[in-house]
Design brief:
By secondary structure, the chain is α+β, with helices and mostly antiparallel strands. The chain is 44% helix and 15% strand. A three-stranded mixed beta sheet has the order 1-2-3.
């Protein structure tokens, strides 16, 4: 694990990020007092949904759920009904038949 003061980090950010990409952790110091840490994000393997979710949250592409999903409660919700005519109109619109 490397350690760097803010001034050096600002001047050589690309070099430090390259080190992080290679798996190193960087501790950031403000006047020699540790204040933060830069750690590499591992890209999840296909099918590892928990790791993929953690990756998306860490990269800011997704927000964590506020509560656990309950499939039984979800199935109790009323299903929307769409008329056959509305479906046909939507298909025609999507095909460009306006």
């Amino acid at each position: 694990m490397r350690s760097v003061n803010i001034g050096s980090l600002k001047n050589q950010l690309s070099a430090y990020l390259r080190q992080v990409r290679n798996g190193e952790e960087i501790v950031i110091r403000d006047r020699n007092v540790p204040v933060a840490r830069i750690v590499p994000i591992s890209v999840p393997e296909e099918g590892d949904y928990a790791a993929e979710e953690a990756y998306l949250i860490a990269t800011g592409q997704m927000k964590p759920a506020r509560e656990e999903f309950d499939l039984k409660e979800f199935r109790k919700l009323p299903r929307p009904s769409v008329s056959k005519r509305a479906v046909e109109e939507a298909i025609a619109w999507a095909k460009g038949e306006r």
